[in-house]
Amino acid sequence: MLIVVQGEVLQSSYGNQSNFRYAFFMVIAMLAFAIEDAIIKQLAFNLPISQVLIAVGLSGLLVLYGLSILKKELIVHRRFIDVKFLLRMSCELISSIFFVVTMVHVSLTVSSALLQIVPILMTIGGFFLFKETVNFGQWALIFLGLFGSLLVIQPGTDMFNPLSLFALAGAVFLALRDLLTFSMSDNYPPVAIAFWGFASLALGGIVSVPFFGPFCELAAVDILFFAASSFFGPAAYLALIYATRGGEIGVVAPFRYFRLPIAVLIGILFFDESPNNFTFGGCALIVVSGFFILVISNKQKNKSTRYD
């Protein structure tokens, strides 16, 4: 397939079997994440958010611990006692609390839409932290995406919910997490990364206990939802790690936006959410700007590699 950007044709290698496999992993990851988000939102209707985070985190830990035994991969090692790794966990802990608050008390659509500005924030972070080159076109796309996020939040209108700002803050911490990941060595096993990601989720629940009240007794349906989460959560996390560890980033990364339309559809069908035209317009601007930022960044990376 060919992608046309500013009059130039970029060969994207969709025909490459390896790229197809990694793109497939990304689609599976985004689908599983959207389903897990819906499960968490449903559970939080009857249970405090802290209890949901702890239970989802612990169930994921158990599954991944069993998987680590089967795959004979170390999940506890002294190389995990690293400042960058601990900072990465902290960012994941904070972002998980913030996104769940928005997902439960605002809407699945808003939280999922604001999650998609992470690549935009990473481009800004790369410019300031790693002195990466950001051209005029990329800055224009960045401001377009940020304007899209304003359309989603809709400050100053009756639709504005201050709790949606938690998702915006969560996106900042997720961008920091991913920037830290890029600066880390890639010799961490995928199962171990996923394991500590769910450890962050559980810790986030423990930290937030004072803010969300006492635990509630679990109903049979809650246990079923937690069981489903123990499948979709680890599957999503592992698929995402495999997707981002291979293939061409310009081919694989844009498929992360598959999560947004699925989340919007789930919100409308199962949670009676009714996004207005401004929300849909904001979602479109975020997706378009993020997609072309990824394409341009990949083009620049290929050029620099070619001339090295």
Structure commentary:
- The protein has helices at residues 17-43, 49-71, 83-105, 108-115, 118-130, 136-153, 164-182, 190-207, 209-212, 220-244, 249-252, 259-271, 277-307, and strands at 2-5, 8-11.
- It is mostly helical.
- It has one domain (21-307).
- Strands 1-2 form a two-stranded antiparallel sheet.
- Helix 2 (49-71) packs antiparallel against helix 8 (190-207), helix 3 packs antiparallel against helix 4 (108-115) and helix 4 packs antiparallel against helix 12 (259-271).
- The radius of gyration is 19 Å and the shape is globular.
- Mean pLDDT is 86; it is low at 1-15.
Provide keyphrases for this structure:
308 residues, 2 strands, 3% strand, disordered N terminus
Offer a concise description of the structure.
The protein has 308 residues and is mostly helical.
Cross-sheet strand order for the largest sheet: 1-2
* Helix/sheet category: mainly alpha
Low-confidence stretches: 1-15
**What is the straight-line distance between the termini?**
27 Å
Shape annotation? globular
- Mean pLDDT value: 86
Helices, by number, come to 13
Topology of this structure?
Layout: E1 2-5, E2 8-11, H1 17-43, H2 49-71, H3 83-105, H4 108-115, H5 118-130, H6 136-153, H7 164-182, H8 190-207, H9 209-212, H10 220-244, H11 249-252, H12 259-271, H13 277-307
Antiparallel strand pairs: 1-2
